[in-house]
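Recap from last week: sequence in, structure out.
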Amino acid sequence: MSGFRATYGTAPAGTWAAPGRVNLIGEHTDYNDGFVMPFALPQTVRAAARRRDDGLLRLHSAHGDRRTVELDAAELRPEGVTGWARYPAGVVWALAAEGHRVGGADLYFESDVPAGAGLSSSAALECATAAAFRDLWELDLDDTRLALVAQRAENEFVGVPCGIMDQLASVCAQSGHALLLDTRTLAQRQVRLDLDHHGLRLLVVDTRVRHELADGAYAALRSGCEHAARLLGLPALRDLSVAELTGALDQLPSEHRPLVRHVVTENARVADAAAALDAGDAAALGPVLTEGHHSLRDDYRVSCPETDLAVSTAVEAGALGARMTGAGFGGSVIALVPEERTAGVAEAVTAAFAAAGHRAPRTFTATAAAGARRVG
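Predicted structure tokens:
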């Protein structure tokens, strides 16, 4: 990237890219030891980087205020870095905390992953940094371990208690596939996601309603789930089956029941979605998506007027199903749409937003791309 030379006065040692992700199904299940099925987007965070042996960590983004952040790699501490730089700095901190020999670097970032859209731009930033450091410092880290380092950065340095889904999707996804992940064991299976073959498209609607997960709402949801599992005597809500759900809900305080109902039924929806794709029946995903949105809206209560409007309008305009994707509180909606109706659904959602006085959404079709890699 030319911006690296303009910023640092020399060429980088290389450029690494890590993608954002769409979570096809399996929302708020990862921190409950459950099942998820994301896929990687073609949109990536790209990190041009060069190793430094003097301990200085310099971070520059082509976006935002465009100031270079300078830090001492050996003195990084949680709460000691603010703004976007927390994410790459946290990766360097996490690598050192796990005993890896790392030091400084010059990094220059560019991105076309929409920030705050529920498409995991933060995980992409972390994973691009981690991939660059793995090569620059010749670290013995496989892809799964790399994703766990990135997750630790977000959990302990940034302060967001996210599960492992976003980072594993950004690192381990394969082109043309969704990643079926058991977040307890980290067992992974690539599930063929060839919507074009079935005459379908996955339309992403970025509502442009931004969210901030570190404000306590996400942490409160996770805490509520963990408390419910303890009350039920379970290691995690993943250990509760659909058949056991009604009896379990009767044992819980009213405030915990909708959280538990969502997690248990969402794990079942992941299994249904994987079975549909394995059987070559991609159209059967539609109702699964819509059911998932209703659960997120009514039980988990992480939807908002804009995402609800996008889902209902998309379905009324011909989508086979739709749901919000990501942690919620804004972000994006995905809609499974017959190819010939894609433009019409996008236009209908845009018109509905205008009529409601909402900011115009951004729409695009998503395809399953490859995970983190060196690109230059």
